[in-house]
Design goal:
The structure is a single chain. It is built from 16 helices and 12 strands. It has about 375 residues and is of the alpha/beta class. The chain has 2 domains: about 190 residues, Rossmann fold (3-Layer(aba) Sandwich); about 160 residues, Rossmann fold (3-Layer(aba) Sandwich). It has a 6-stranded parallel beta sheet with strand order 2-1-3-4-5-6, sandwiched between helices. It is elongated. This is Glycosyltransferase involved in cell wall biosynthesis. It comes from Curtobacterium salicis.
Length: about 375
Amino acid sequence: MAALRSTVARILGRSARTASTPSEPAPLVGFVVHGAGGVHPASAHVRVTGRMSALAASGAARVAQVDPVRWADGSDTAHLDAILVQRDAFPLAALDAAFARASREGTRIVAEVDDDFFTREARARLAQAEYDQDRLAAVDRLVRSADAVVVSTDTLRDVLAEQGVSAVVVPNGVQPGLWDAADRVRADRTGPTADGVRRVLYMGSATHGGDLDLLRPVFDGLTDDEGRPVRLEVVGVTGADETWFDRLPLPDDAVHHPDFVAFLRDRAPRWSAGVAPLTGDRFNDAKSDLKFLEYTMLGLPFVGSDRPSYRGADGHGGLLVGDDPVAWRDALLTAFRESAGRVAQARRYVLDERTVGADQAGERAWRSALGLS
């Protein structure tokens, strides 16, 4: 697992040394995310560092993580052709100096956001979770002043358009080498575990606590076609303990994203499906279909709420349902029966169209936002 944590750092360091030619060095692209040394929040791995690794490996640019304060005050003297900043990773107090330096040196500043930080409802929800006012203000200041803005969904682009900000949509993708690209689906891999119980996975951050409540009546006494009990198993999502679901705690060595992915992959055979409930609000509507991608790479059939976030997943093997508990139950039973075929269809789509670093529309749009051809 430690090796997984250092993958990004190794690739970035190696590529920065080899991506240039003696006559004309490749552009230098900096990125600002929380964390360092390959240890970052999950969103940074998903949205930034994986793509930066692929960019560097391609030779199209040299890349380097940047200390935002040192770059803003000039302590870091490196000239950057572009700098990508994720969410609130650039401190609010240093942003004015950063924009001033970028203007002097011709550095392109690109803002990267993958959640709704702008509507009143969303800001209230984020404030209850983990974002204080300075963090929210940093995102707002960055997005309104950047040369380009990259978002993860069409809905989020529309939210920004309401704020008078244009944005480019780059859908989330899976990172080769982090998620297993081999088709490991077996006919018996999503059956009941040794104790005769079918388990269904729901994983997520603390902002999904309210969504979890949608599933309470779904799993109340639920059994499969053979009469075996079906239990929901939760990873993250909420700090509460309830009798109607089981909690699978994370060990200390699985708190960083690559280790978390390895933790899930090692345990994938225990689950028969992955679920993604979403309540109907603007914050959720702006979220991406990342859970569909990740459950698919775990070899699990997907059942999710029929919300804008998962629009189109049902055309690639997923199952979408409204808030009716009966519809959820029927969809889960269908997922159990049709697991292999639905997962195979979904994996073809993810590998063909939603892979970081491949020659796909989203990746081309991301490079264009950075000013790279």
